[in-house]
Amino acid sequence: MDEVSTPLVPEATVARLPVYLRGLVDLASDGVETVSSEQLAAVAGVNAENVRKDLSILGSYGKRGVGYEVDFLIEQIKRVLGAGDPVSVVIVGAGNLGRALAYYGGFASGGFPIKGLVDSSPEIIGQEVAGITVEPFEELKDVVQKNSCTLGIIATPAAAAQSVADQLINAGIYSILNFAPGLVTVPESVTLRKVDLATELHILAFHEQQRERNE
Amino acid sequence: MDEVSTPLVPEATVARLPVYLRGLVDLASDGVETVSSEQLAAVAGVNAENVRKDLSILGSYGKRGVGYEVDFLIEQIKRVLGAGDPVSVVIVGAGNLGRALAYYGGFASGGFPIKGLVDSSPEIIGQEVAGITVEPFEELKDVVQKNSCTLGIIATPAAAAQSVADQLINAGIYSILNFAPGLVTVPESVTLRKVDLATELHILAFHEQQRERNE
DNA sequence: CAATGTGAAACAGTTCACAGCA
DNA sequence: TGCTGTGAACTGTTTCACATTG
Predict the structure, then answer these.
(1) What is the pTM of this model?
(2) Alpha helical stretches, state H, chain A
(3) Fewer Cβ atoms within 10 Å of its own Cβ: the N or the C terminal residue of chain B?
(4) Residue B35 pLDDT more than 80?
(5) Assigned CATH topology for domain A89-199
């Protein structure tokens, strides 16, 4: 009955764990075997007490006076993040962005192999992109099931985004990353995150203006 | 001395204003002249009290019993965000991602025209991408100054990111959007935001796992 | 004794509830 | 009367300070 090994991980911590993970993997490949919270903070771009609070939530994995064992910590963070084994990804939209994402090798090596690529445009369907054949959008459910995709990326124009999200959910996907601008709504049971470039630029412009004002 | 028209805008509000702006522009193009906080909340995907709190920070622009005047609100949000006139952008890295960004028309129409595109690879330099000629990375400072770019986007591999950031700052850019994974540090006077795809996928995987655990 | 783990304090952001105004 | 504007309560997050321990 509701056996939970990691009782409660704050969202802010979840968002930092992948950053620690990346830093730890780098350190490991440099042959480093032990890190202090101070060192890990430095490679992650946060402060040391933050690192300690975050790691203490996963369990007491550090040794006082010494630090944390790199390999062991990598395993623990992977376990908590659910990054034990690869998570197959389907990308909807094989335009410029979809292709750029498909070609980006970091996904596969990071444990997120792109296993499906669909588009609705007849000129694009059938093309080979990064070793994957672009399938028709109508085949989405099939593609998802054949490749056991559990994560979907929306890389279409804004106008299509909501219906793409609906179809992803219909295909059995509960985790969606949306690159299209504009509002997409999903049921509570689905996790939707968005990467909103226009918003990012506006935020930067705001700070730029603040700077100018203080000159 | 220190005349500040908008005394203090919380970061969380700054991050939502562009979303309101997009919704308002859509509404305006549909001929809508007045919105309630409830309606604006619906198109922005937040709740109504949040909208009211955010807008009240800019000033008392609403009419009780009626709502907000769409056109006027658009102007006010633009003013606060510093989106009055176009902000020229330079992209460093004309690989798949850099090209995808350059081709994305939403930037120009949103007030962020791409005015420069540089890369270090000889095969790419000189190519025409989205109507822009790719210039050598060494010419960055020139490109920035000639086109009055105030915002830089890093679309290079992780290994180059830090030195690209340094060069952008050296070229006079204080606002940077980084797509490369890994740590990039900048002086306090510079605003750096990052879009971290690997982290986004890890966060989704975490929630996916949470779901599975509760089944 | 160096570095972790963690309560307590401070801060930021959201939600609630309702007073106040067109 | 309907919808804004906002103090107050609450929730989440960060920072601080220090006792704890390998």
Answers:
(1) 0.96
(2) 11-29, 37-44, 48-58, 70-81, 96-103, 106-109, 140-146, 158-170, 197-213
(3) N
(4) yes
(5) Rossmann fold (3.40.50)
**Quick one: what percent of chain B has pLDDT higher than 90?**
91
How many angstroms separate the CA atoms of A24 and A70, rounded? 6
For chain A, say whether B72 makes contact (Cβ under 8 Å): no
Average pLDDT rounded to a whole number, residues B83-98: 96
Same fold, B11-80 and B89-199: no
A127-171 pLDDT per residue, tens:
999 999 999 999 999 999 999 999 999 999 999 999 999 999 999
| pLDDT one-digit tens code per residue, A75-93 | 999 999 999 899 999 999 9
Would you kindly state where each structural domain of chain B is located, as residue ranges? 11-80, 89-199
Structure tokens given for B7: 């005394």
- The CATH architecture that domain B11-80 belongs to is Orthogonal Bundle (1.10)
A87, B208: Cβ pair inside 8 Å? Answer: yes
> Min CA distance, B206 vs chain A (Å)?
5
What kind and span of H or E run contains B202?
A: helix B197-213
What is d(CA B98, CA B184) in angstroms, rounded to the nearest whole number?
18
Q: What is the CATH number of domain A11-79?
A: 1.10.10.10
- What's residue A106's pLDDT? 87
Q: Do B208 and A175 touch (CB under 8 A)?
A: yes
Taking the C-alpha atoms of residue A140 and residue A92, their distance in angstroms, rounded to an integer, is 8
Among A19, A26, A96, the residue with its CB nearest the CB of B103 is A96
Q: Which nucleotide is nearest to B58 (CA to C1')?
A: D5
CA B134 – CA B93 distance, rounded (Å): 9
| DSSP-derived secondary structure for B136-176 | EGGGHHHHHHHTT--EEEE-S-HHHHHHHHHHHHHTT--EE
